[in-house]
Amino acid sequence: MTTQTRLFLTAGKIEAGRVFAMLERAFEEDGLPISSSEIDEDREIFEVSVYTFEPDEIEARMRDALGSDMFGLELHREQVPDIDWVAHSLEGLKPVRAGRFFVHGSHDRAKRRINDLAIEIDAGQAFGTGHHGTTSGCLDMIGEVIRRDHPQNALDLGTGSAVLAIGIAKLAPIPVLATDIDPVAVAVARENVVKNGVAARVKTETATGFHHPAMRLAAPFDLIVANILARPLMQLAPEMRRHLAYGGSLILSGILESQREKVLAAYRIQGLFHQKTLHREGWVTLHLKSRATY
């Protein structure tokens, strides 16, 4: 089996950003995959990685690009098997039930029941197959909120595979705007929306935060769902408040249990108050409203 090598360094946020920029310039004509990912959110520690089939040559060029002392950072190697990750993940991917929702891959269509709200999502390039605790928690909360509040429109911010937007559209005949910062994710989301038969209700757009004309046209929203990460959720709190209809609901996830109080505090300042928390596998899903209802 052909193996790829990941060459990576670990550094703080500012230093990692500098390293990433220097490596991006050094390898811009080579087409090598270069990534920067946060591995410790509380301490703001990042890994900067370069993927190659020629590790000795690329390591020498990395050292040349970063200088002989490499900013005092240690360069590590890791072998990455050449695996068809989509097929590999489908092998062990079992259907997920969350309330009335039944999230499944195309290989499990036969397991759908008559009263299921079936959502077909295959593992792929966009996050969200229903198997992560944040996604299943959001689906459960969406079911509760829609049954009780009957929202007239909705926003799925950071839609990924569009699993949550599809769930909303299947449960209620309302317009749903599904946005993501990643154009690849939006393309996958659009395919999933069509495949699940809700293209007439769900509109997909590439957008950073709330900066898109579609947001202004559709707001205010009776329901906003955002399954991203705690820090961007806290940063977006003022914009969330501005785009939420009075009495509307926010469903937030991508939040570790240890981050719950910080997120709630950021939204309390904006006049958005905790209604309910669901716990799943160390993650929490929060329901907030601009006024208390229960």
TrEMBL record:
CDD domains membership: AdoMet_MTases (cd02440)
Location in or out of the cell: Cytoplasm
UniProt: S-adenosyl-L-methionine binding residues: 135, 158, 180, 227
InterPro entries per record: Ribosomal_L11_MeTrfase_PrmA, Ribosomal_PrmA_MeTrfase, SAM-dependent_MTases_sf
Name of protein: Ribosomal protein L11 methyltransferase
GO CC aspect terms: cytoplasm; ribosome
Chief location bin: cytoplasm
Alphabetically ordered keywords of this record: Cytoplasm, Methyltransferase, Ribonucleoprotein, Ribosomal protein, S-adenosyl-L-methionine, Transferase
Keyword Cell membrane among UniProt keywords: no
Function: Methylates ribosomal protein L11.
Domain of life: Bacteria
HAMAP family in the cross-refs: Methyltr_PrmA
Record keyword Ribonucleoprotein present: yes
Catalyzed reactions: L-lysyl-[protein] + 3 S-adenosyl-L-methionine = N(6),N(6),N(6)-trimethyl-L-lysyl-[protein] + 3 S-adenosyl-L-homocysteine + 3 H(+)
Top-level enzyme category: transferase
EC id: 2.1.1.-
One Gene Ontology biological process: methylation
Signal peptide range: none
A Pfam family assignment: PrmA
Record GO terms (molecular function): protein methyltransferase activity
Family: Belongs to the methyltransferase superfamily. PrmA family.
NCBIfam families: PRK00517.2-1
